[in-house]
Here is the input.
Amino acid sequence: MIVRALKAVPAAMPLVAALLLPTAPAFASREPVDMSVMQLDSYARARLAEADGALVSAASAYREAVKLDPASVEVAGRGYRQAVLAGDKALALQTAHILDAAGRLPRDGVVVLLIDAMERRKWHEASVLVDRLESETNLAFLVPFMRSWVSLAERSYDPPVVPLDASYAVFAVRYLEEQLLLQRLALGDRAGLDDAYAQAKGRKVAFGPEERAMIAARFAGLGREDLALDILTGGSNAGSAEQAAAALKQAKKLYRKRSFSPRYGLALLMQRLTNDLAGQGEGTATLSIARIASFADPANDDIRVNVARIALAADYSAMADTEAGRVAASSPAWFDAQTVRLRALLDQDRMEEAVAHARTLVDLDGGSVRSLRLFGDVQAAKGDFAAAADAYGRARQAQGEKEDAALLLQLGGALEQAGNWPAAKPILERVVELAPDSAVALNHLGYALADRREDLPRAIALLEKANRIRPGEAAFVDSLGWAFYRSGAYDKALPLIERAAMDEPANSELNEHLGDVLWAAGRRFEARYAWQAALVGLGQDDGEAEMRERLSRKIDGRAVPARP
Here is the structure.
């Protein structure tokens, strides 16, 4: 077996794959190649690529390894997961069948088999797999919806019913209204549209840009242009009635032939699951689910963007760039895709490309609010806060009379970072008026006031409120501690900033603050230790050169923090 052979190879050989290739004389003489060596080479290359996080290369090598040793469950198991993560549907299905025959199929593999059965329109086979999902429990929330979709495909439609006593009920009901609406549209049920759409709106379903356009096109096709325009103007980037009419015209052109199918319904369910898992730290697990959603509906741009976002969060920025780049300029999801591409460029430290791309987006999107904000975000990431403030200011002008607290916070923050406090202060004050319970706004204004020793009692009050709204957040705890430090209350400042630095030990700013407070409290040795920790936490980019120099001067005694 391949696994036993691999154990004989020293682990410290980084070029193991190359060393296991046949020698030149073997090729020259055309002597038979030992198949076990070829198997080992493919498997070794696959394992090395897997260890490096090179998902596409790993899947490619596993494809070869599975071909050479189709009976190996070990190879199939590893190949299955890498195939799913890399988006290799064919390999995922091939290895899923091998694992299923051996009784080793992962739970999400049943969904891969279900997608294949639906693609082949084998509805009885699909029903059996849906029953299996119910028995294996992990993804049982899919069962009511997929039974309903299968019945729709078999022309014996039964609406989805979520059993209230089922363990997955609390989870499944979150998706019920959206799935019912999609099924009504698939059935062409004009009579049930108003109720289904009203219930989905009541649930506040976060329709994706392409999903919104597809639903609008179907509404229009059923003679309900009123509902079509309503769903198009309900998005976060809703514009004028003229813009909505133009968007509807484009939606009908793009999606008049696209239908709501069982595979589409499954794809959206899997996507909703990834949204619910976001932020829980399971990057590769969530990416697997997003990829399976893309297997169900490969043409879905909302799902492409979702895969790109999750890949970015899982530190696969090159993959995120590639996936987002597959979204066509004509797609309603195009701008969201470009946003992900920009984040991916920034993650790869391709700063100049990101700036150039963001500038191009402003031109292509007609100087819209969203493109100007994105351009401002990139300039802020670059550290050019004056340029960021200019972009946010132009976005504010493009927005007209409407006041957006989030945009004003970006503008005020950029002005403050650019050193223009007189212009920043009234804007940040206005943000707090518009959003008095925004912990971020309260923290920003409170910290800015405290750092400048302006109105310290009010700064402390703002920061105490921010900490009540979002208790335990290191940045907010540090801000309050810093305000007490600026007021000379070291006994109150120190425990707060110590707690913040303990929660985020790699945060250089928090460690510098801790060092300053320790120094003011007379604990000089500990202060230098905290400054050293801050120095270690810094990166190597030029934007941190000033902080690096400041910390070095504090550590070697050339400069000490002034007492507040």
In short: The radius of gyration is 28 Å. The domain at 1-105 is CATH 1.25.40 (Serine Threonine Protein Phosphatase 5, Tetratricopeptide repeat).
